[in-house]
């Protein structure tokens, strides 16, 4: 092992990286699950949230149901907010003024809980407080249901399990923190602001906090019977759903990436061990001749793999679990989750060490077996070229290659000389590319789809919300504002869709039929315009309601007075949300004219305007209750991707290291195996530079052979991985830029060139006289 | 250097050549102050037991390694003055080497092995001629693993001659061969010496081979202990061992 320490170290490092990745990511994954569980338990995060209907009756029934341990009712309403000069979409959530609610409690991060002594004192959700720098004592303004402004005072900052990821709905997972905020207000104040006499929401917590599908079905039936507008499970809750996707993705990576590393390490070990056994063949024969048993030799060579596996496994396991804690802390801190439950799990350490040992053992098994089968007579045999040469496959495919200079034919044929080694190198390239492309594919997909959503589909620069509906005069005022290029009315409303016994709560968006603010991309490709009658819907709706294009569904939007059957004319490929679209004319007709010109204005700016200035100008216009900047949403996504970039950078580094370890080992073995040939050529006057070029060319051809399948495999695995993220909230089908594939391939080639440097150096150091003396003796 | 000078100056001239390995207590003196001159065109055999320093001396003459002390001139070139790159060029242009275990490239056919060195030395057109000279024109498209030991060594001879070297050096060229194939290879070497005027220097521990040489050098403990001309070399066919 000492003679090949560089190669064994490379393998050890690969095993170490694989086990570290496993230990760190798996434990971090488990820690995150625990953090969520503990936070959910402490805050009694609702297992079921029922909105609308006869809340008193629903709550009463729920309290009596077995398996329910806490039920709470509250007021929740979406009302515009103003923090400083910024107008944003807001939500008020009623809280008992004297004590925390029994369900959906909040964690007080600063200041105090709401109190009957401060009837206008409210808690600011932590993300909003951080974005606008609101501290206890600061003022925020909200408009009540009638559009009357109310100045409220912050008495504290709160974290809520419902808003760990601050998403207003399943359809709006990505919102800019400038555009959405939540206030927890005393229940009497909530009623006053929302214009409601009593609670409009029931939140139910099951015994032990565990989901219970039978209970959920039963309570859903009761809620529907009592006229509930929406029933949402804990799994469907927007924040939880988004974070669970994230955590489960993390869990998948915790297995996938270590597997890649351990496979690479196993391949490298096999290559190295085979070389070792070949080089020591006569010694093995001598040992066999002197009475060493096959079992002894098998154990001896197996021990090489086990030692390197144990070292990599132990160091990797311990490092992994030590890294998992800070990783969990960083993640929970980034998402402002109040509880970070970290633990050292002995099972992870044991499994990590076992992974290292198993990898080493499997990799060394075949070479060790081969060593144990060496006949004693091998000790007596001298060197001769036992492996037959042959014309290379490339020369057979392209006969003109046979006219290449002899040295290049030698290079081509060397590729097939040790097929296992060439396979191992090419496999290393494939594995490294899978690692890189899965990581990079995630970033590409999110970036491309966000660009598509906010660049191609949503064409507006900003959306102005008018709580009381937008009038023609108000639209005109927007149009006349300096910097505005185009303005259109639009309507956004909550709608429940139903078909085939299935129901789906989403948002209805009504636009002009000739809208220039939205492009309707069809799922099969191409685009369409809004149909004169009927709806266009996000593609996930097909599965949700079990419908086909052309079939009718029932659309119920109580706020608009709409309750009618409409045909779904087509399905749209939209990355974010599963919305339904119709024309303003159809919506007005269905609501018997009650909605006028809609409740928002979509605005496009003139090129080069200052967006902050536009926010200020447009927010000041009469009737505007909230302002959403499309670019700000993109920035929010980019910010979210910041973590991804770090992750991808690490994976690129790790992928590079993995490729390095494999190519380095293959190259070193290759040079070592051909030491005498190279020495002969050097003795015959072949310059080192020429031999280095030949070896480099051979190595690069092997790498290039691996690149094509690597790109295909990487793309396929990335596609599978991304598919696991697709649901009705976001449809993240893999999108990969051509430049990503090209740059990944270039990165691998660069790594290959770097990884052969030690072998080329070793080649330069070949002592011709020593080799010739060795041969002579 | 003029043609006349070639004829009067020895092809190989060694003065006080020393080669040591290791340092201080671990120092080994492989060659301990050798003076030697070999004229062009002869067939010289250097005899000596294992460890006598004959292979080291061969390596020094071939420019494979530099001497620790002394002067080595081959074809007028002072090898001690050359750096690694220059020695490589010297070997390419002036020396043909034959090894005990043939050292053919297993992925190239016999003729391609010859072609490789012929191309390297800018003598690509000599491949066919050299293969024919060693009597393997029919078998030259076979890979080394498909050739017998004797055939492989004949290809190795062709390869060594492919660069039209001034000096052909062989390190136990028959050491891995049986009597008959050994004779074939020696006949070939003797022929190229006689017919082409090629200078051949072989090192071997097999004293029998010395009988076909024009000149016999004997080494022991890093020194040349005898230097004898053989005015009546034995025909190769008469060799027995």
Notes on the structure:
The complex is a heterodimer of chains A (777) and B (241). In chain A, 52% of the residues lie in helices and 19% in strands. Chain A has 777 residues and is an alpha+beta fold. In chain A, the strands form 4 sheets. Chain A has a 6-stranded mixed beta barrel with strand order 4-5-10-7-9-8. In chain A, a hairpin with a 5-residue loop joins strand 8 and strand 9. By secondary structure, chain B is an alpha/beta fold. Chain B is built from 7 helices and 10 strands. In chain B, strands 6-7-8-3-9-10 form a 6-stranded mixed β-sheet, with helices on both faces. In chain B, strands 2-1-4-5 form a 4-stranded antiparallel β-sheet, covered by helices on one side. The longest helix of chain B has 18 residues. Chain B starts with a helix and ends in a 12-residue tail after the last strand. The interface between A and B is large, with 36 and 47 residues.
Summarize the structure in short.
Chain A has 777 residues and is of the alpha+beta class.
Helix/strand/pairing category of chain B: alpha/beta
Counting H and I runs of at least 4 residues, what is the number of helices of chain A?
22
Q: Write down how many β-strands of chain A occur, each being a DSSP E stretch of 2 or more residues.
A: 23
Biggest sheet descriptor of chain A: 6 strands, mixed, barrel
In terms of DSSP E residues, the strand content of chain A is: 15-25%
Helix coverage percent of chain A: 40-55%
First CA to last CA of chain A: what distance? 25 Å
Radius of gyration of chain A: 33 Å
Strand order of the largest sheet of chain A: 4-5-10-7-9-8
Mean pLDDT across all amino acids of chain A: 87
């Amino acid at each position: 092992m000492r003679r090949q320490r560089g190669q064994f170290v490379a393998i050890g490092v690969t095993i170490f990286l694989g086990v570290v990745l496993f230990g760190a990511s798996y434990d971090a994954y488990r820690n995150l699950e625990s953090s969520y569980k503990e936070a959910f338990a402490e805050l009694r995060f609702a297992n079921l949230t029922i909105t609308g209907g006869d809340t008193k009756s629903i709550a009463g029934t729920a309290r009596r149901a077995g398996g329910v341990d806490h039920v709470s009712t509250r007021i929740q309403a979406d009302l515009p907010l103003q923090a400083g000069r910024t107008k944003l979409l807001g939500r008020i959530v009623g809280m008992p003024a004297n004590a925390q609610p029994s369900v959906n409690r909040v964690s007080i991060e600063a200041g105090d809980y709401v109190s009957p002594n401060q009837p206008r004192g409210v808690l600011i959700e932590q993300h909003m407080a951080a974005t606008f720098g609101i501290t206890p004592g600061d003022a925020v303004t909200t408009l009540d249901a009638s559009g009357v402004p109310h100045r409220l005072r912050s008495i504290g900052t709160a974290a809520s399990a419902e808003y760990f990821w601050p998403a207003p709905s399943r359809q709006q997972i990505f919102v800019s923190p400038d555009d959405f905020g939540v206030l927890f207000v005393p229940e009497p104040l909530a009623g006053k602001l929302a214009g409601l006499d009593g609670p409009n929401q029931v939140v139910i917590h099951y015994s032990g906090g565990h989901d219970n599908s039978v209970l959920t079905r039963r309570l859903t039936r009761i809620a529907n019977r009592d006229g509930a507008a929406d029933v949402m499970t804990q799994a469907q809750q927007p924040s939880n759903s988004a974070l669970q996707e994230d955590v489960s993705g993390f869990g998948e990576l915790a297995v996938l990436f270590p597997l890649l590393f351990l496979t690479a390490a196993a391949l490298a070990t096999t290559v190295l061990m085979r070389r070792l056994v070949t080089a020591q063949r006569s010694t093995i024969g001598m040992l066999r001749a002197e009475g060493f048993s096959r079992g002894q030799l098998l154990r001896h060579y197996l021990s090489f793999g086990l030692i390197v596996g144990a070292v990599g496994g132990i160091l990797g396991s311990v490092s992994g679990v030590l890294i998992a804690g800070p990783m969990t802390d960083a993640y929970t801190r980034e998402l402002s989750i109040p509880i970070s439950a970290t633990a050292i799990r002995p099972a992870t350490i044991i499994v990590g060490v076992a992974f290292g040992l198993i990898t080493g053992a499997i990799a060394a098994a075949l070479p060790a077996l081969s060593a144990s089968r060496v006949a004693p007579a091998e000790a007596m045999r001298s060197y001769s070229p036992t492996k037959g040469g042959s014309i290379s496959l490339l020369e057979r495919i392209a006969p003109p290659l046979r006219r290449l200079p002899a040295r290049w034919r030698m290079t081509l044929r060397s590729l097939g000389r040790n097929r296992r080694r060439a396979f191992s190198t090419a496999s290393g390239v494939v594995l490294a590319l899978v690692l890189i492309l899965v990581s990079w594919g995630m970033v590409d997909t999110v970036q491309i789809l966000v660009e598509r959503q906010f660049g191609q589909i949503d064409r507006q620069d900003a959306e102005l919300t008018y709580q009381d509906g937008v009038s023609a005069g108000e639209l005109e005022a927007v149009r006349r504002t300096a910097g505005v290029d185009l303005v259109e009315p639009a309507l956004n409303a909550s709608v429940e869709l139903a078909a085939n016994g299935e129901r789906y709560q989403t948002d209805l968006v009504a636009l002009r039929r000739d809208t220039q603010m939205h492009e309707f991309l069809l799922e099969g490709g191409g685009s369409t315009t809004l149909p004169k009658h009927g709806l266009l819907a996000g593609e996930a709706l097909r599965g949700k309601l079990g419908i086909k294009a052309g079939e009718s569904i029932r659309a119920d939007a109580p706020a608009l007075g709409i309750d009618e059957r409409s045909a779904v004319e087509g399905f749209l490929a939209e990355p974010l949300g599963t919305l339904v679209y119709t024309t303003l004319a159809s919506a007005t007709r269905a609501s018997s004219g009650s909605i006028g010109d809609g409740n928002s204005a979509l605005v496009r700016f003139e090129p080069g305007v200052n967006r902050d200035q536009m926010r200020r100008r447009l927010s000041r216009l009469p009737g505007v209750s909230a302002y959403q900047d499309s670019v700000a949403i993109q920035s929010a996504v980019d910010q979210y991707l910041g973590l991804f970039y770090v992750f991808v950078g690490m994976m690129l580094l790790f992928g590079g290291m993995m490729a390095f370890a494999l190519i380095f080992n293959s190259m070193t073995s290759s040079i070592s195996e051909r030491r005498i040939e190279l020495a002969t050529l050097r003795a015959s006057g072949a310059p080192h530079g020429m031999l280095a070029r030949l070896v480099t060319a051979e190595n690069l051809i092997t790498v290039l052979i691996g690149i094509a399948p690597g790109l295909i495999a990487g793309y396929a695995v990335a596609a599978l991985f991304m598919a696991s993220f697709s649901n009705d909230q976001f449809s993240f089908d893999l999108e990969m830029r051509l430049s990503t594939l090209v740059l990944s391939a270039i990165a691998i080639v660069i790594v290959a060139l770097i990884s052969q440097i030690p072998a080329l150096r070793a080649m330069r150091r070949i002592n011709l006289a020593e080799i010739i003396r060795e041969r002579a003796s | 250097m003029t043609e006349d000078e070639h004829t009067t100056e020895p092809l190989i001239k060694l003065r006080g050549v020393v080669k040591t390995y290791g340092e201080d207590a671990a120092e080994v003196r492989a060659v301990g102050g050798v003076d030697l001159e070999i004229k062009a065109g002869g067939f010289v055999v250097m005899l000596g037991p294992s460890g006598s320093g004959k292979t080291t001396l061969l390596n020094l003459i071939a420019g494979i390694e530099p001497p620790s002390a002394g002067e080595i001139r081959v074809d007028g070139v002072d090898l001690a003055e050359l750096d690694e790159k220059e020695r490589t060029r010297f070997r390419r242009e002036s020396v043909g080497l034959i090894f005990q275990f043939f050292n053919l490239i297993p992925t190239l056919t016999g003729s391609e092995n010859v072609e490789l060195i012929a191309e390297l030395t800018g003598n690509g057109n000599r491949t066919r001629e050299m293969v024919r000279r060693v009597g393997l024109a029919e078998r030259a498209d076979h890979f080394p693993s498909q050739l017998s030991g004797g055939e492989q060594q004949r290809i190795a001879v062709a390869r060594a001659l492919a660069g039209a070297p001034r000096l052909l050096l062989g390190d136990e060229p028959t050491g891995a061969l049986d009597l008959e194939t050994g004779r074939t290879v020696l006949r070939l070497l003797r022929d190229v010496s006689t017919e082409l005027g090629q200078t051949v220097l072989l090192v071997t521990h097999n004293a029998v081979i010395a009988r076909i040489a024009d000149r016999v050098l004997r080494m022991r403990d890093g020194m040349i202990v005898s230097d004898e001309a053989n005015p009546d070399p034995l025909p190769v066919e008469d060799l027995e061992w």
